[in-house]
């Protein structure tokens, strides 16, 4: 600073005493009206002088503090800091070492007991002989600055761009002197690109400064964790300049602010020559100071004030504001000056102004300027540029506004928790996802919103999250306000402050319920497809085996049956043949069971009353249950008829009851068989274990519930697989047969089971009025054929068509035994050729359904083209309704199911041909 200059037009004092008095008055006005507090102490830190501004800062009058020890206004922490530093300061003074101004941020106690954060700049004072006289310093209220600093420290890293907006050059170092940040201003001042500096040790990048005062102070600040401020001249090119450096310790290094102050140092040298008396008190002040007369003409100003206008103090003196500012701004300044002088009261304002086309802000204090007689002869002003602080505040507010807008409008759910898992904040998308109001969430524990089975999982994972600092794709099931389960995933990170302390969690919530449902549906569809393919393959295998097995059994049974017609058989031989017939029939039953599994057999479909079927032979039901199990019957009194095969339905009931009893084992338990009627929609029928789903409508159900061991999901999926069993022995066809019977009856089967909780199997049969049209047609097709009344003269001729030579020969023998003539054909094409040639001889065709080259349906279609009224009896191991699906038009006259006996053959021939005489 150049100090305060007095206009030459003002009258000069005539004596040295008046000159001294005027100078002291000027000094008094400056010191007593500035916002900062100036003070002096003895070497023992007893206060000897303090400016009146202490009243605004601490509530004391100067006389209250003069004679008090400096610790009188310090908190315990401040006193401790002073006790730590004072011995070192005195040691350095005694050793006549260079001493820089000490800068400290301390909390002081006001007279009313409240506290205020202050910045204290202290400097030792020496007399003309170099004798240490005590300390002098400046104390400034930095509460607002500290509050802003704390706020900024708590802000997220997005606010670091503020560092780039400050006018100071800035860089930060870690504990190893490695540069961790270097702002653009620092790059501009030192002429080095940031990429060359960040990540490298400072004094390796700037070897010219190694061993200098810079390294000494940075090392000390790192080691002692103290703030330092110093000014120094660095003489080595290209960095030769005066620098003002402020060093602040951080949790893991230091932050350094510096400015080029070469021009300022020149001004201070000039100021030191003219006003040495109070130079040491104001040289560190950032404020701008001026004095105007009653006409608002400048009498003097300090260097800082002039530098803002880019001129010298001498160029300001004797001019008014109209010389430097726009008319409207100059008018406002003049009006403020006049108001201050008119009222005799200080004016404290913060206002904007334009500089180089940019808006800047100043904080100013104006007080009346008195002469030695106490008369107001002008105005004294002290102000500082607070543009950067205002910009920082506005940037912080704008950043927080943008962040809040982003936070609230983002379609993804956001939440923040404290270290105890309590909600600090959620956004609207989070609330929309779960249906809560904000007041119902904030302050509550996160686990209160989880499904019960996920609460313990959260207790285990949350501490791990706090330890690792981030999580990805963590899945939880939450319960929304309506009680509905919502599956969500979380991605999150921990928020820390500048010291690395935990602040809060930041998590993004994604509702994946629908995605999970679609994924489960896809997996279920894939599972069903694979299961259907497996079942189809097994069906083909079982059907093929059964067909071939039936053919061989038919040959065995037929020949054994023919052998029994020999009346001269030895009794023992006859007995052996009869035993063989019984064994073959049991084998045929096994083949029949395999066909039932495929669901392609339904031989005797009629209208059935399920109640009568179950109550007709109750002893048979009890035979399926072990002695330790109680069988309970809950049979609905009146049930609609269903279309079905009584034998197969009895097998279905017995298989389910046996399975239920075995699930209970040797323990006491109960099996309940219940029937009823229900209307089923499509959604309910989708639960069926069959791929084919019946049409929605009215169904008769049969339900068996046991108190047994129940099934897990894996066992339940395999329940109907053929050859799967949970028993030590057995072939596992019982429940596979059940699914086949349900399939052939166009029904549905639904399973409810849980390990340890028992099992319920519900079988649904369409009520007869909604029975499948094709099944009804197939089941009634034999009765729909009117027997032709013919009178047979002589023996009838039958064309036997069979690709299996053994079956073909057996058929010929049986027919000849019954008195028929026969013609044979080994396949479909031969049959057609023979039929054309001997059309008038043939009375009936016995046609095998399953043949190579041409199957029975294709052959039948050619036969009716040749002779529309041809009589055909189909021979097949497949069920009638399956066979009849191959005949969309005219139907065969009859069907024989392999293996058939002589009695069945004779009965069908008699019915079709109606033999007479």
Keywords:
917 residues; alpha+beta; 5-stranded antiparallel sheet
Task: Explain the overall architecture.
With 917 residues, this protein is of the alpha+beta class. The strands form seven sheets. Strands 2-1-5-4-3 form a five-stranded antiparallel β-sheet, sandwiched between helices. Strands 7-6-10-9-8 form a five-stranded antiparallel β-sheet, with helices on both faces. Helix 29 (856-866) links the parallel strand 30 (844-848) and strand 31 (872-876). Helix 22 runs antiparallel to helix 25 (734-744). The chain is rod-shaped, with a radius of gyration of 54 Å.
Q: What's the helix and strand layout?
A:
Layout: H1 16-33, E1 37-41, E2 47-50, H2 54-58, H3 62-65, H4 76-94, E3 102-109, E4 115-126, E5 132-141, H5 143-154, H6 161-165, E6 169-173, E7 179-182, H7 184-190, H8 202-205, H9 213-224, E8 228-234, E9 241-250, E10 253-260, H10 262-274, H11 276-282, E11 288-293, E12 298-301, H12 303-308, H13 313-316, H14 327-343, E13 347-355, E14 358-370, E15 376-385, H15 387-409, E16 413-417, E17 423-426, H16 428-434, H17 452-468, E18 470-479, E19 485-496, E20 502-511, H18 513-564, H19 571-598, E21 606-608, H20 610-615, H21 618-623, E22 629-634, E23 642-644, H22 646-664, E24 669-680, H23 682-685, E25 697-706, H24 713-718, H25 734-744, E26 748-753, E27 759-766, H26 773-784, E28 797-801, H27 805-817, E29 821-825, H28 828-837, E30 844-848, H29 856-866, E31 872-876, H30 880-884, E32 894-897, H31 902-913
